[in-house]
Fold each of these.
Amino acid sequence: MAMKMVLRGNMATAYAAKLARVEVIPAYPITPSTLFPEKISEFVANGELKCQFIKCESEHSAMSACIGASATGARVATATSSQGLALMHEVVFIAAGLRLPIVMAIGNRALSAPINIWCDHQDTIAERDSGWLQFYAEKNQETLDLMLMAFKICEDHRVLLPGMVGMDAFVLTHTMECVDIPEQEEVDRFLPPYKPVYKLDVNNPMTFGAFSSPDNYMEFRYAVHMAMESAVKVIDEVFEEFEKKFGRNYQRVVPFMVEDAEVILVTIGSMTGTAREAVRLLRSKGKKVGLLKITTLRPFPKDLLKKYLKDAKVVVVLERNISLGFGGAVYPEIAAVFANAARRPKIYDFIIGLGGRDIVVEDIVKVYEIAMDALKAKKAEMVEWIGVRKDEIEVIK
Amino acid sequence: MNEESLFASGHTACAGCGATIALRLLLAAAGKNTIVCQVTGCMEVVSTGYPNTAWKVPYIHVAFENAAAVASGVDAALKAKGEREGKNIIALGGDGGTYDIGLQALSGMLERGHDVLYVCYDNEAYMNTGIQRSSATPYGASTTTSPPGKFSIGEDTPKKPLAEIVAAHRPSYVATASVGYYQDFQTKVKKALSKKGPSFILVYTPCPTGWRTPSEKTMEIAKLAVDTGYLILWEMENGDRNTLKVTKMPPKPRKPVEEYLKIQGRFRHLMNKPEELKKIQELVDAECKRYGIE
Amino acid sequence: MKITIGATVTEAGSSVRNKTGGWRNMRPVTDLAKCKRCGICIIVCPDAVISMKTREEGPKTDYDYCKGCGICANECPFKAIEMQQEER
Ligand code: SF4
Ligand code: SF4
């Protein structure tokens, strides 16, 4: 029987790594992801997990060691956050280019400066072009499930790309929730050992990380893009198989009360729960509001976004990230889904909850009201920051 | 061609490149059960232009600063799979990728005790990007970022003592070598690989392009560096300072360092500066004295 | 050209497709009468182009790849290798 445990999100991903029988875990501690290497080292110390745990001297080296181990054919996982992910940036791209299915848990945390250890999605958003699959969890159960599924998806020979599972700093990484831990035998049946296509092998010597010229670089990039496109199908298959085996449903984009909705909110991560409350409240007042949660940001779920959003009057994108000098990062991507559509919703962007600022139901109701006013005023575009005390900001004229 | 070479013909290194000789010697000593993890640099670029490779052993290049970390991952993966026995793991970097940008990763690999031999081929500047100075560039050398001029005599700091920094980590084995004394180098490679735990060899490899030396003089210069005491060949075993010994004594009397400097374009501007030549001779004498060389 | 997964080069030593002999200005010519078969030239050649199958045959230079650096001639203890101007 599957076991239930009260776990912090970080620990749930450590359990996922254990259940996945990960062979090598190179890691470097960073708040709020430290519980992952702590729990892994505890598993190793107790003999509960037979894996090589490499206590690295930086995140850059941790990801580099992941690459070396994965290229040798091992199943590999790590965890990081914020500055740690930013320090990895260079090798994050390389892991994807080398087509190594490394899985990484991310405690989504704001980027410096100023330094801040609380939640937003800027760290993973900054890596969205890297060729890594991106999953975002709403609850601790999802961190475990998505991590497990990420191995299967990433290691599929139609994909062979690394994947990251984002969970909101503290809101998920450190908050205790009841998590269903599947049976090892069931997981073994779901997730067979990793079979690399190519690996470092003295009996069949190959060269990894070759130097590419203008004559072939574009083909390699296109190959990664193709793998991302085929990941869509693989993700759907794996989600379906997971539901059959473990009874929990996952979708790349999760709709809530969208059927007749005129206004649809789009969220990522833990704010989804709050947004759901807001939708219920607004529905009780007769407003036709719905909600879409994005679980996989890469590959970008344009098919599902189009399907669910096409009949809405207004799409409200709630973003815990900011591309400074423009707006949120997801907003233009959703806008692009409708760029050439004959009929399309108004799409408004809201920057909210950066650096761990609370997002409460009233904030989301306020967002709804601003969006409705904008619609009435026929505003063509809008990027609005919620709850920012603009009058306190020092400005030199 | 020489079919036995584990580093094949057809690589695109400059004619007379000392580093390629070092790679050939290294692989010949290590044998085919070897996995190589290399940093970005000349030797990577000239050997792996897709769709070709000069390597006949499994090889991975990831980035500039991380060969030691990548090798740590390979070591761990083989251990996890129970396949570590009977294989060598060699991390390979130039002086830029080792002395400078890769020093942290190297220190981590040494400290964690990975069973990896790190070989730094030292040609004393960033050759791949166009001969910029590194912390391995010696005092007085002209590079594209340490040019001599009215207010400059070339590089204004002495070379960083990398092998001694490594020795401070007390690895299983650490040595300096010169491609010119290839038997000494290969003996050291074998010794390093025979020991469990981390080891390090710094091998000195002249670069005809960056040093502005005739291509046929590569081995001669590499020997002259040792014979003048400019480069001291030593080894230390099992992290024990008492084992430290010089493996190749310069002839007595030692050749004057000017003999070594004058055949290299990168030192040409010093030839009419006797006070600078004297200073370099004094630096060499002081270093030799530290190692008990007359 | 096959675009492999991750740009992995699956054929070891395939650089032999690059015939670097075209770079050569000077040609090493070995006088087998002077050569004592010590094998030093084989060891020091940066391009791995010299091989010796039997002592009778002596060292053989593969001009498809020799870049003409002159190290072999410089290092031969018996001055058996001479660098000659390449004629093209
Ligand atoms: S000239 Fe240089 S490349 Fe040619 S055989 Fe001699 S050492 Fe090798
Ligand atoms: S180095 Fe000279 S003597 Fe020795 S094998 Fe080569 S050609 Fe012959």
Amino acid sequence: MRVPILKQENFLIASVQSALSDVEWERLRDDLADQVGRHRSYGVIVDISALDVLDSFATRTLRSIAYILSLRGAKTVVVGMQPDVAYSMVRLGLSLEHIETGLDLEDGLMILRESLKGGAGPV
Amino acid sequence: MPALSEERRLPIDSEGDIITARQIGREMASRLGFSMSDLTLIATAISEVTRNIVDHAGRGEIDLRVCENGKLQGICIAAHDDGPGIEDVELAMQDGYSSRDGLGLGLPGSRRIMDEFVIESERGKGTNIVMKKWKP
Ligand SMILES: Nc1ncnc2c1ncn2[C@@H]1O[C@H](COP(=O)(O)OP(=O)(O)OP(=O)(O)O)[C@@H](O)[C@H]1O
Ligand SMILES: [Mg+2]
């Protein structure tokens, strides 16, 4: 299933609805990289509230998505991580590194709006 | 109470099998009465060892069953493959060691997550992992 991507303000919102296969992760990455350019988006929110597992593979993929989008001039905020998933990531030793995180969609939008004020945007 | 004989053996041939395995493992552990956060830990460990089978060995299988130790009940997960095996198991068990561009956290992380973790591997002889989590 393709992850739906919505446009809101200058941002894109991708809502992951269920566990993704490798191919679906790759498609999400490519879709976002493409749409960030087409819509001239400054930021992307990836909502992972539907995910009940975030293993080392998914973590690595999220990191690479954020990195690629940063090269396309957009900031990534991951929102909605479930408390149990966060706990499991800590126990495993995983981190999202430099990716910003927010509690929910509202929070993610606020983070992106704030960072726009700070002069962030496409380089 | 789940039947103590409950056991599932699943072939792991492709990445789709990883999602299936962790879902079945989670359901089995859920019937045993594990907490939500334990279910997430168990599903994550299953995800890591089956991902390793797909990535490093190509194919293998995973065995999920309810197990007992005295008064304790838990879930017992056995992963097996006839892949290339691991040259230096001690090294592979260290945080951050990966023979490719991985994070190198799958094996050491799973050992931290589970109550028991035993790995047997030898170059050319495949890999066997048995891990258990007991219900508190
Ligand atoms: N089933 C296996 N067969 C052969 N080699 C394996 C197997 N499982 C693990 N290994 C070896 O052990 C190393 C460490 O495994 P580990 O899961 O910790 O890290 P990784 O798979 O490289 O990265 P990731 O953090 O993405 O899981 C691997 O890089 C690989 O060389
Ligand atoms: Mg691994």
